[in-house]
Predict the structure of SMC-Scp complex subunit ScpB.
Amino acid sequence: MNAEPDDLMRAIEATLFASDVPMSAADLRLHVGDGGDVPALLARLAADYAGRGINLVERGGRWHFQTAADLAHILRREKEESRRLSRAAMETLAIISYHEPVSRAEIEAIRGVQVGKGTLDVLMEAGWVRPAGRREVPGRPLTYATTPAFLTHFGLASRRDLPGIDDLRAAGLLDPVDLALESAMAGSRSDADPEADGDNPVQSVVEMDDEDA
């Protein structure tokens, strides 16, 4: 048997494999030449791939390789994009979770620095923070609170399950800067939500689970 048709079929196979779009017989001839019966070789190649994990199929006169239809389900994989929060975002989330509902100005007063323009946006896009209405004071500032998704993500039944300062200190999750900031926060706790009573750390449970954040 003449080996030339086999060589031509291998060339067709390689061309289709490298192409990112389906190709017609005429398209293939531009690459492999017209020295053979391209349609017949395509049919033969399709027969060779029948029953494999990858099939050669023809759609509207154009040919391409695709995953076998009966195997598509094992190739579907959902991937949750992980996002590591910045220190500013973690501190902001901590303040909201322990003091909600809290306004931007109150967050800035506790942190001692301005809240970056996108920090709250990042937390809301993550689904962990939501607008919680406006405070009935001059200017009626918008306040923020955590969401059920925040509790779910960090494995909390309620905000009462947030760790206290002693818990995080014992776990070695607080450094001198954290402790100094926590002391500054203490003065604002009289206005905090009753649900957040007790010693509240600056670094929330976020740092305990920031590999998932």
In short: The chain has two domains: 4-75, 87-212. The first helix runs from residue 4 to 18.
